[in-house]
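Run folding on both entries below.
>entry_1
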Amino acid sequence: MTYSGVVTVGGPADVHELPDLMISKVAVGPMNNNAYLLRCRATDEQLLIDAAAEPHTLLSLIGESGIASVVTTHRHQDHWSALREVVDATGARTYAGQYDAEGIPVPTDVPVADGDTVRVGRVELTARHLVGHTPGSIALVYNDPHGHAHVFTGDCLFPGGVGNTWKDSKAFESLINDVETKLFDQLSDETWVYPGHGDDTTLGAERPHLGEWRERGW
């Protein structure tokens, strides 16, 4: 089956099969949050991005093999509402951006800084600190050695724009600058974007609109 990235709350996961990494996307909770389960194909080690809601759904997706770690992309409650239950059930190590960790009630085992590496088995993800939606939001970039990059953006980049900065002009300027310099300037148009809510996109689909986003200011 071809991966589309289109999922619905209560529906099945969609699975993106890469040579070294399996990515399972599921939608959970009243805010239609996306959670992503990453599995290293060489070791079967698993990592969850955003234990957002519905712990029973996430634990069913994880399965009996469990997970080694959970990464929380940012401090907003809709992205960690199931974190305590998932950690208690799996014993997973917790990761979050170093400037958002204090806003997440489940203790962060590994505070993450810009450029840090997060591993799942033999697969390496690079954290990028994107300031504006929250002080410590992080995206995770997987540079697939067999193809283009894949980036998990939390609430910092969506189809059609950057994340909400609540009409704070300084926060918006910070976020769009970080998204441009750390994602668009460094990654190819083919880069697949996995956002915190809704459908996926690519950097190529969004790149022509960066000027429009700056002009509208959100």
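>entry_2
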Amino acid sequence: MTEKVRFRSIVGPELAGAIDLPDGEIRGWGIFVHGFTLGKDSPAASRVSKQLAREGIGMLRYDNLGIGDSDGDWGDGSFTVKVQDTLRAAALMAERGTPADLLVGHSWGGAAALAAAAEATGIRALATIGAPAEPSHVERQYDAVMDRVLSEGSHEWFVGGRTLVLKRAFVEDVRHAHLRDRIRELTLPLLVLHSPTDHTVDIANAGEIFREARHPRSFVALEGADHLLTARGQAQRAAHIISAWADPYMSTPS
């Protein structure tokens, strides 16, 4: 079963979320942070969250600003906004009496999860899937329009079958965001999952994240998986691994 929720972004508009409720005995709760322009219903977010719920870990997944069912303009977001909205998601879970133990971030959402984890209410463990070591990795996706954005203040950008407006403040925020210090200072258990055949975010990023992190840290290669976890069974496989690894850190371990 899925429960629909809404909460306010740090910049004001309401964000739409879905909580995949745990099957059977409740082991704990978590939050899934989706990739750059993906959304809560993308294969990685939806399939990983639903599989974790089947294994007793209820998961909140939500659309970032201007994505999917959320209000607002995507261009008014930024990496900083994504991080702050992750903290708001954690606050929502705590307010409803189901504080999140686990934070899972996919792709650019993995970078946001790394930046937010230390401040997020109740989080006891963090897992990343195909995450870049720096937020600026995403610049290669909009490189073709970046000069126009910087000179004109904003420019339309066609991506994923839709047109978004990329703004100068967004680009500048990404350029000023640095993760390495956040990773070094992280005191939570960290699981890094990455495919050796990820052609969107090279696996070298996983090595950088792992080297910067303190123990307890773990790495698992998602051999055969694509970046978006669209291949049959790959998202569920990632969820199985996360579920087993996270068990000691759940508020009610099985």
